[in-house]
Amino acid sequence: MTVKVGVIGTGWIGAEHIRRITTSIGGAEVVAATDIDADRAARAVEGTGARVLADGTEVIAADDVDAVVVTSWGPAHAESVLAAIAEGKPVFCEKPLATTAEDAQRILDAEQRHGSRLVQVGFMRRFDAGYVQMKEVVSSGGIGAPLMAHCVHRNPTVPETYHSEMAAQDTAVHEIDVMRWLLDDEISAVQVITPRPTGNRFEHLRDPQFMLFEMAGGARVDLEVFVNCRYGYEIGCEVVGEEGTVRLPEIPGVVVRNSGHRSTPVPQDWTTRFAAAFDAEFEAWVREVAAGTPTTGPNAWDGYAATVVTDAAVRSLHSGGVVETGIKDRPAFYA
Amino acid sequence: MTVKVGVIGTGWIGAEHIRRITTSIGGAEVVAATDIDADRAARAVEGTGARVLADGTEVIAADDVDAVVVTSWGPAHAESVLAAIAEGKPVFCEKPLATTAEDAQRILDAEQRHGSRLVQVGFMRRFDAGYVQMKEVVSSGGIGAPLMAHCVHRNPTVPETYHSEMAAQDTAVHEIDVMRWLLDDEISAVQVITPRPTGNRFEHLRDPQFMLFEMAGGARVDLEVFVNCRYGYEIGCEVVGEEGTVRLPEIPGVVVRNSGHRSTPVPQDWTTRFAAAFDAEFEAWVREVAAGTPTTGPNAWDGYAATVVTDAAVRSLHSGGVVETGIKDRPAFYA
Amino acid sequence: MTVKVGVIGTGWIGAEHIRRITTSIGGAEVVAATDIDADRAARAVEGTGARVLADGTEVIAADDVDAVVVTSWGPAHAESVLAAIAEGKPVFCEKPLATTAEDAQRILDAEQRHGSRLVQVGFMRRFDAGYVQMKEVVSSGGIGAPLMAHCVHRNPTVPETYHSEMAAQDTAVHEIDVMRWLLDDEISAVQVITPRPTGNRFEHLRDPQFMLFEMAGGARVDLEVFVNCRYGYEIGCEVVGEEGTVRLPEIPGVVVRNSGHRSTPVPQDWTTRFAAAFDAEFEAWVREVAAGTPTTGPNAWDGYAATVVTDAAVRSLHSGGVVETGIKDRPAFYA
Amino acid sequence: MTVKVGVIGTGWIGAEHIRRITTSIGGAEVVAATDIDADRAARAVEGTGARVLADGTEVIAADDVDAVVVTSWGPAHAESVLAAIAEGKPVFCEKPLATTAEDAQRILDAEQRHGSRLVQVGFMRRFDAGYVQMKEVVSSGGIGAPLMAHCVHRNPTVPETYHSEMAAQDTAVHEIDVMRWLLDDEISAVQVITPRPTGNRFEHLRDPQFMLFEMAGGARVDLEVFVNCRYGYEIGCEVVGEEGTVRLPEIPGVVVRNSGHRSTPVPQDWTTRFAAAFDAEFEAWVREVAAGTPTTGPNAWDGYAATVVTDAAVRSLHSGGVVETGIKDRPAFYA
């Protein structure tokens, strides 16, 4: 069975997902798409055979749409996800699931009323080969019980539209999800520390930021977010346990020896760095949707948790102090 | 346009390519397949919608088959490739293109008579990210003119059916192709040296073997083939130039620190090691077939050269001495 | 000229320094030693030709003692250092220079009254090849202005006598010194965070500890201190600047490939890890003492700063909050 | 006891060893030196207190000379070593022990007549931490029985006086010794292959050279000698055994991330690369001489074997073919 996908929002990431479903994975095709800019939608589906519809409601309702991909702008995500749930269709939503805890809660409520899980959130790192290996090591007890983790998240540069709160909302949100998953625990408190800012940034931006997370079980996670690091895109992660540590591999590259050095190129953007993870994420989603079973990737609860923790990080950025996330207990539905 | 593919031979690698075309890449579907064991063919296409045909002739002739994948056993390759050329259909042939230089020559002749290139040979390493980076470094002059290259090709173990000549025919053939490509030169002579054999092998097998290749331009390539190395599957390559060297990256894996060591898992088989390369190989082939242009991957000339060099290596294995490959001049058609 | 050294305190580290001066470096010899346990002193100088004296006062006063090494227990350091200054003799004092800020201040005062620098403190990391390379990169502007640094300091285990305050006093004190030196800045504030403790420790010990340092110029340094990490002794450090980062090399070791992994042994103790640094430290000190010029290693001001910051870290361990170090302005004498 | 050393030959390496004995290690002092250029000898011992004598005979005979270091030019080594044996004094001889097999044989004969071992040859690699670890792994069976080894020996450049035979005599001689030691076997045959030469060399020089060694037990060793590699000084070695492999560590250096790369400086000369090995070599020699026991470093037999194999390599360079070394059986005296 080929899964027929409708896409809501055809900006950069939406167009990329259309390309991916069409070219880089098998088992699915895009049959409908929409965007607030209809021309942009038309360009995004060119050559795929998909049609452009008026809005997300039409996409979700279309008879030949088996499953929905939501890649509109963040504040519009929750409405589309709720509509897909109402229609009983599997929905893949790019992060964030919702921009407010209230909206995220409405999704949790709706999905539980529906009675089975329909929502997957686009935290692709859980499908990255390196993180998958880390998860296996941690889960198998290879390093004992986790006590700490050290993370870095670096971009070479960001556009002027990137503002200080996005360090949590757009950037750290990936570590927030992946550390919850790796440590199998919720984040109970956050603190954002602001080192002396780099000169290589737009004036309004606080960069770098150093974030501390306290897990409910007492482990601590620290994270450097540095989005104007200049040299490249790099993600680092080490989990420290009672018996040892496990570290994310560095991205491989040829080793060139010349001019007195041995050197290796560093990826320059996240699309290169996580290309295989995006492919694996969609392959798994399509396979599970085709099988008619709930998808096993990050779910609505994970989306809710990310929103709650991100909010706390933004409050800490402004206050400078430790902020409790106040995350609720996870319903058994999401166990 | 979706490329409709017919597959001849559904043993392990054929079944794997059917799975890959169906699941892991987009833009193509398998519509027909055949195998000397019809049941095996039926199992290989289960769930894909493809039909099983009586033999390769039927597959190649089928109206809805746009392009052919040849994954039968080696001695049968040439016949299928020649038939596909006769039909004017693009054909992807797993290595070897032919098991004799004469058969390879017949393919070169047929393709030139046809007037445009139709044949691609399954040397997937040219699509491996590490080798691609190496090629860019060498081509751009980053290490100066190449003088030497050091290669290792290790398998953890091989079955009893693997015999001493296969070290050249099945194993070293990958380095033979990739070194011709990296150094942009033909191999003029070969010598196979046989170190003391490992005890961890079937009695009949000469393992390891150490091979020396002389390029037409005077560069030298050495290659350790060790197919019972026990610890894992590993490919190593360093090209040494007048100004520096470039080395294939080691396969990344998590770094675990415990019990007094830091350690990283090594891949155990080539399907894992080259999974992304196989995907990239087929994505490119499908894209180029769909575009109606000659494919730019390894072509029939590369298949011919590999056969000629492999033959020389086998003769050297038996004689112990240096064997000239006697490779012809490359026709302008393959420039 | 051979520098004649008197050693005060012949416990483990004192005996090790006697051995080092006698065997591993040239240009110096131990001529006198003392210890509260005279037998221990006798054993420590066995075979060196040095004589055992009654106490530190006698050692410092001895006519044939050119320079003094203080390796008694910490609370006794200040008195010996002050006596050596009074005698006008160069003195190498193991860390800590003093256990209270008041004692450290008395040494600063005495040395300034003396009019030239006589004191070197045993922070050997400044002589480690890796840190020396880091310093060159940072100083030369190779990574731009420093903004952050991430450090880890891990021991496989510690004896029962090691208590929670020693994480700052004995362990973090090395990073406190080396980060002041690398970043060329003073530490203005400290915070100690206590993750869930490991089970592999004596009950009274808080381990691991995570320390945050704020530099006067706004850069931030974080440090994991984990003295029961089990797997080995390891020191990590990365300085992040506006244009790039520089990282301490991992300690080299053979790479063994077997049983599905490639692995490298990790040093198990700091004497192995820093053996070459200790040699270089003493070679430089002896050479400078022989030359009659003030030694250029870490001086009394560095010792004072370490004491002040360590005190602040201990207070933060107890309070959990951020503690200002209240470090004074550096006198021009120590510029 | 301080070992009193006489040095014969105060060129670059002789002066360096005088400095090393005086400054970098303990337990020894230079008391006498000689050189064909008396002024050069005077400069080399300046500040050490040693006196300059007329010739090697005087140095060896001097009452206060306990042990002799021979660092004259190669063809003069044998005479000095024979004289030291005649005097019954321990002698450390820089490589080569002798420039002809006949001279080496005379030393073996003389030493056996003397009745105990007096000679150590300056193959410092056996004291390099990386090679020591490799030896432990191989000896402990960690990789099973050795089958192959791959070596590289690269210098950034060489002076015009360096000629093609020196690739074996001066450069490969280090691998010849260390591989005999690592594999615990003699070299029975050699072949030198000459790839297309680099353009970055003096016209008369054949560079690079690729050498193949056959061990008596059937293992094979290959070695790239490339003395104009431009980028730095680098030594590589991997031993491949029946159960795994062990590889010499790369020389550590800071990892700098900037300008799109992560890079590490490579040492530029062998004095830096092997500084710690030279120190360890002399510390061990001095300690063993002081103890009055035969030194356990590379002995006269090792010096003989290196000369025999080097000769064979030179013959192969000229003939292009495989040359048997014709090495004799090792006398029990050297077991």
TrEMBL record, chains A, B, C, D:
Pfam family, one: GFO_IDH_MocA_C
EC identifiers of the protein: 1.1.1.18
Enzyme class at the top of the EC tree: oxidoreductase
SUPFAM superfamilies assigned to the protein according to its UniProt record, in alphabetical order: Glyceraldehyde-3-phosphate dehydrogenase-like, C-terminal domain (SSF55347), NAD(P)-binding Rossmann-fold domains (SSF51735)
Domain Gfo/Idh/MocA-like oxidoreductase N-terminal: 3-123
InterPro entries: Gfo-Idh-MocA_inositol_DH, Gfo/Idh/MocA-like_OxRdtase_C, Gfo/Idh/MocA-like_OxRdtase_N, MI/DCI_dehydrogenase, NAD(P)-bd_dom_sf
UniProt KW keywords: NAD, Oxidoreductase
Span of domain Gfo/Idh/MocA-like oxidoreductase C-terminal: 135-324
Assigned protein family: Belongs to the Gfo/Idh/MocA family.
HAMAP family for this protein: IolG
Purpose of the protein: Involved in the oxidation of myo-inositol (MI) to 2-keto-myo-inositol (2KMI or 2-inosose).
The protein's name in its UniProt record: Inositol 2-dehydrogenase
Native source species: Nocardiopsis lambiniae
Highest classification ranks of the organism: Bacteria, Bacillati, Actinomycetota, Actinomycetes, Streptosporangiales
Gene label: iolG
